[in-house]
Amino acid sequence: MTTYAIGDIQGCAKSFDKLLEAISFDHDRDHLWLAGDLVNRGPDSLGVLRRVVEMEERVTTVLGNHDLHLLATAAGVHQPAAEDTFQPVLEAPDAEQLIDWLRQQPLLHYDPTRDQALVHAGLPPSWSVEEALANAGEVERLLIGPTWKQSLRTMYGDEPDTWTHSLEQDAQRRYSINALTRIRFCDVQGRLDFSNKGPPGSQPPTLKPWYEFPRPGGYSTHIVFGHWASLGLFRRSGYTCLDSGCVWGRQLTALPLDPLGEPVSIPCAEGMD
Question: What element of type H or E holds 109?
């Protein structure tokens, strides 16, 4: 059995299928870790969701910011933007089942046997893995609950951008969502920045990539993430980014995690015969 991690699919169902072929994925034995943003911007979000749901226990996925945007749209909290491409999901006969499945996915997954964590964007520098799991769990419990639609109304916004334990509960949840699904750069105080989306080196000197800050307690967990297409396929000790920009016409990438191997990338197949 091999566990593979795959970066942002974003509705690129054809590329997803071709990548599974490229790694000779065994649906009876192998397992997938998906780094979130299953949907949006690509042409077939509905196809991606249906494929992943059908794989059942062969898949572990975390929620990305585009997945949460779909949930918020389904809940009536947000109106679809002009560039959104997930309307077929909302109009599908199995829309309710797909949305219910999606909202039951975590913001953060941790495997203690391998000391590996899966998250869409990253972890704020002040959090240990244990703190991140606890704060993610506060959001996850609301999303799986009967009042999830109402709860989403309090979970959107760019503020607060800094974590303190004195924040009121809704503000803590907003910060948790933003940190786990949107973080790229932050400053030495841990203040999240949402305006700079380019590669490292393009940001103001007061900011650094989140993964360059010291880890609290020096934890050794290997963190697998996506979200940062301008960073692309990136590997350094303790960190792997797998967003190789498929939805932008670049590549979709898989990394064998267990046993650890070399990444496999295929060119974006959307729009090809």
Answer: strand 108-111
**74 CB-contact burial (10 Å; exposed 0-12 / middle 13-18 / buried 19+):** buried
Q: Which of 131, 22, 8 is nearest to 67 (CA)?
A: 8
Q: In angstroms, rounded to a whole number, what is the distance separating the alpha carbons of residues 106 and 104?
A: 7
> Among 183, 179, 176, which residue's Cα sits nearest to residue 137?
176
Q: Which residues contact 62 (CB under 8 A, 6 or more apart)?
A: 34, 35, 36, 105, 106, 107, 108, 109, 118, 119, 120
Are 190 and 165 within 8 A, CB to CB?
A: no
Q: What is the pLDDT of residues 192-236, one digit of tens each?
A: 999 999 999 999 999 999 999 999 888 899 999 999 999 999 999
Instruction: Count CA atoms within 13 Å of residue 68 on its CB side.
Output: 26
Q: Which two tokens stand for residue 57?
A: 């226990």
Report how far residue 197's alpha carbon sits from residue 213's, in angstroms, rounded to the nearest whole number.
Answer: 18
Quote the distance between the C-alpha of residue 212 and its chain's center.
19
Q: Which two tokens stand for residue 125?
A: 């520098």
Structure-block tokens of residue 197: 């989306």
SS3 73: helix
Strands 264-267 and 251-258: antiparallel
pLDDT range class, residue 273, cuts 50, 70, 90? very low
